[in-house]
């Protein structure tokens, strides 16, 4: 009599960006092959987009396709996982609608509107966070993002005024890219650019832009922006936004000091919202992120449920935090899977400890930038070399292909 095949145990990963894609590669390389009966485990990677995006780059290619190589910016997810066995990997072009953590299953909806339930043996939530502006990330599929960029470029070609809400890196990088592209820069000894072609205003409620960096670095960024005709309004909130109407073509942006700015384009770049609407509130902290332990397990969700990346409460939203969290998460997933399969595993959990030192690189236009790494200020040229030159595209090849995770660490 033929032996009964072992039922497949799904390791379900929701979200396919920095956190989800890295976790999938890492587990396929270092966890599944070490389990008894590896053919019985399947990574199921769920994403509403069939392409991965180098998200930090968005402020530049939203202006034109010619500014960065498109084949490196968007990469096919099924293509980079083709090298693994079909027994161990499946891509689901779908969105998670509802997590039933008591029943250990997730309801997903495919892009052709078909709903189905996927049961899991282990679950990794890596659904990240959405930006209020649709221009700055994969809030849904890559085609939608590209269509948003096309529409933006048409508006940009006619714009005389742009208002950006938010003085964090996303707002400042967007202001710098638009400033240099639309206005150029003043000469080195002229300081502020007088009479820019397009009025670009950044509004921030903080007392400085780039609150993640010391104030002297933030001042440098403000000086560079001024050279591109960007004006910064600090200590002021956007309290109301009225979109264009039949009577007028501009957006009216009311500020907390009572003044009203009229703009041809308004870009909200204030904060992000964790993509957790499909998760029971009892598993979330007050700001909407998933409540994880230092071992990256989700508190109260049952066995073998984890969260990583911008969606999780363990760290501030940054790629470098994800890259240090992935080996910790995967070591704990592997250990839990071995234990669940009856293998006696010694040793303790690996714990994630966030590096909270001042670390942020912010290109200002295509030639300059400001920033710090691990508490050390980085000169403009180095910011350009590391990030501003191609907005991290030099790093994503290894991440998306998985070669970054060839060694278990
Ligand atoms: C403009 C900008 C510039 C940035 N610059 C930097 C930088 O220079 N350095 C740095 O370290 N960080 C930077 N960041 C932050 C960085 O991009 C994030 O930390 C990183 O993208 C987070 O990765 P993630 O995998 O956690 O989630 P995300 O990148 O947010 O991706 C989540 C994925 O999950 C999918 N998803 C959402 N909901 C569901 C669902 N219900 N079901 C299934 N899938 C779902 C989404 O479509 C998306 O593909 C920047 C962010 C922005 C917006």
From TrEMBL:
GO cellular component: cytoplasm
UniProt domain FAD/NAD(P)-binding: residue ranges: 10-322
Residue ranges of the TM segments: none
Domain of life: Eukaryota
Any matching Pfam family: Pyr_redox_2
Keywords from the named record: FAD, Flavoprotein, Oxidoreductase
Annotated GO MF terms: electron-transferring-flavoprotein dehydrogenase activity; flavin adenine dinucleotide binding
PANTHER family according to UniProt: APOPTOSIS-INDUCING FACTOR 1, FERROPTOSIS SUPPRESSOR PROTEIN 1
Family: Belongs to the FAD-dependent oxidoreductase family.
Protein name, as recorded: FAD/NAD(P)-binding domain-containing protein
Upper taxonomic lineage: Eukaryota, Fungi, Dikarya, Ascomycota, Pezizomycotina
């Amino acid at each position: 009599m033929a032996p009964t095949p072992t039922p497949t145990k799904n390791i379900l990963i929701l979200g396919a960006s920095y956190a989800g894609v890295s976790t999938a590669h890492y587990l396929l390389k270092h966890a599944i092959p070490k389990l008894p009966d590896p053919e019985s485990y399947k990574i199921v990677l769920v994403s509403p987009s069939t392409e991965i995006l180098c998200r930090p780059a968005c402020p530049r290619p939203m202006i034109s396709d010619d500014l960065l190589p498109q084949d490196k910016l968007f990469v096919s997810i099924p293509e980079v996982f083709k090298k693994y066995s079909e027994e161990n990997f499946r891509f689901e072009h779908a969105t998670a609608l509802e997590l039933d953590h008591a029943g250990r299953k997730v309801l997903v909806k495919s892009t052709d509107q078909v709903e189905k339930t996927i049961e899991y043996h282990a679950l990794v939530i890596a659904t990240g966070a959405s930006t209020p502006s649709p221009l700055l990330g994969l809030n849904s599929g890559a085609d939608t993002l590209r269509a948003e960029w096309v529409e933006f470029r048409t508006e940009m070609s006619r714009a005389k005024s742009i208002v950006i809400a938010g003085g964090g890196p996303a707002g400042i990088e967007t202001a710098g890219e638009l400033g240099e592209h639309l206005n150029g820069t003043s000469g080195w000894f002229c300081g502020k650019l007088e009479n820019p072609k397009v009025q670009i205003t950044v509004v921030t409620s903080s007392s400085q832009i780039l609150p993640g960096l010391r104030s002297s670095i933030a001042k440098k960024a403000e000086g560079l922006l001024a050279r591109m005709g960007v004006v910064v309004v600090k200590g002021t909130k956007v309290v109301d936004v009225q979109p264009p109407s039949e009577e007028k073509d501009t957006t009216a942006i009311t500020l907390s000091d009572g003044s009203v700015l009229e703009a041809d384009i308004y870009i909200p770049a204030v904060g992000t919202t964790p993509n957790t609407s499909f998760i029971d509130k009892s598993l979330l902290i007050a700001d909407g992120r998933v409540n994880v332990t230092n071992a990256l397990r989700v508190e109260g969700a049952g066995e073998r449920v984890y969260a990583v990346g911008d969606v999780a409460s363990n760290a501030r939203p940054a790629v470098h935090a994800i890259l240090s969290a992935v080996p910790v998460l995967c070591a704990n997933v592997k250990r839990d899977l071995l234990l669940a399969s009856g293998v006696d595993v010694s040793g303790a959990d690996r714990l994630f400890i966030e590096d909270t030192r001042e670390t942020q690189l912010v290109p200002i236009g295509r030639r300059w930038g400001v920033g710090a790494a691990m508490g050390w200020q980085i000169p403009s040229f180095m910011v350009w070399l590391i990030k501003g030159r191609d907005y991290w595209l030099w790093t994503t090849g290894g991440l998306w292909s998985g070669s970054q995770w060839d060694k278990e660490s």
